[in-house]
Amino acid sequence: MNGFINVLKPTAMSSHDVVNRLRRILMMKKIGHGGTLDPNAAGVLPVCVGKGTKLSELLMTGDKTYLFKLRLGIKTDTGDIYGQLLEEKPVTLAYSQNAIEQALLQLTGSIWQKPPIYSALKMNGKKLYEYARKNQWVDIPKRNVMVYALTLKHYCRNELLIEAKVSKGTYIRTLCEDIAQALGTIGTMSMLIRTEAKNLSIDTSYTLEEISNEFLLGDNRFLLQYDQVFPWEKVMLEDNLIERLLHGQVVSLNDIGMNPIEHFFIVDKKHTIIGTGLIKENQGVKIDKRLF
């Protein structure tokens, strides 16, 4: 079994918990996830299966879409409602829709944000939350991220429901605090759902129970093929050229008759994906990741 699974991760489970559960369900060890989702968050968790794990790094890249709630008037050490309360400020002002949308506009585009101390980001060989749990101070540098869109979906006096389309590495908890600051108050994240990641939508995701039931029935419709997640160009080659590539040789671009492109699949005459292609010095092609 090789490919990907679009898992609907529930709350109260870590991404690693999901992987361990799938290993038991599918009775195989070679499974990994393509992008951590916080234990208290739910939504799309891309999972790599079999030789699909060779593409895990590429699966982690790309933009993501989240639906989140921002609760105004409180600040916690973790940046969400599950942390320790640090500060509380009464929300006496009823913000207008225009004021909220102006605050969101300030944080749209290329922005700098400091990752939260309670995160799995590594610094000096340790995860940041390890420093936090030992009350050790660490100077966390800001990172440049892209916020493509922030859309207000619903709001009441002290809670906003917002959709965010962001680049890899954007922390929604930090974004919540920055939005609250732009409104002249404090705030923390009270809900997080990842609705899209790497061409995978929550609308077509599978729960762990659904995957288990279908697998027991011999139905693997939950398994996505490589080209369903990566819509790359396919380069079909003759068997003799594929044989050369499988033996680690570089095949001339002239022999293949193709122009240099960044990402592509190498397929045989039966349309089977053999692997991903890599162009060497704009002159030849080799197999980068063998997938068959």
Can you give a write-up of this model?
By secondary structure, the protein is an alpha+beta fold. The chain folds into three domains: 3-61 and 199-228, Pseudouridine synthase (2-Layer Sandwich), CATH 3.30.2350.10; 64-189, 2-Layer Sandwich (Pseudouridine synthase); 233-290, PUA domain (Archaeosine Trna-guanine Transglycosylase, Chain: A, domain 4). Helix content is 24%, strand content 36%. The protein has nine helices and 19 strands. It has helices spanning 15-26, 56-60, 97-106, 128-133, 172-182, 208-216, 226-229, 239-246, 253-256, and strands at residues 3-9, 31-33, 42-49, 64-72, 74-76, 85-88, 109-113, 122-123, 126-127, 143-155, 159-166, 187-197, 200-201, 223-224, 233-236, 251-252, 264-267, 273-280, 284-290. Strands 1, 2, 3, 4, 7, 10, 11, 12, 13 and 14 form a ten-stranded mixed β-sheet that branches. Strand 10 and strand 11 form a beta hairpin. Helix 1 (15-26) packs parallel to helix 6. It is elongated. The termini are close together.
The CATH topology of the largest domain is Pseudouridine synthase
Low-confidence stretches: none
Distance, first to last CA: 11 Å
Number of strands: 19
Radius of gyration: 22 Å
Question: What is the helix fraction of residues, given as a range?
Answer: 10-25%
**Helix-strand pattern, N to C?**
EHEEHEEEHEEEHEEHEEHEHEHEHEEE
Question: Major sheet, described briefly?
Answer: 10 strands, mixed
CATH class of the largest domain: Alpha Beta
Report the sheet-strand fraction.
35-45%
**Assigned CATH superfamily of the largest domain:** Pseudouridine synthase
Assign the CATH architecture of the largest domain. 2-Layer Sandwich
* Number of individual domains: 3
Mean pLDDT: 92
Number of continuous helical runs: 9
Shape: elongated
Structural class category: alpha+beta
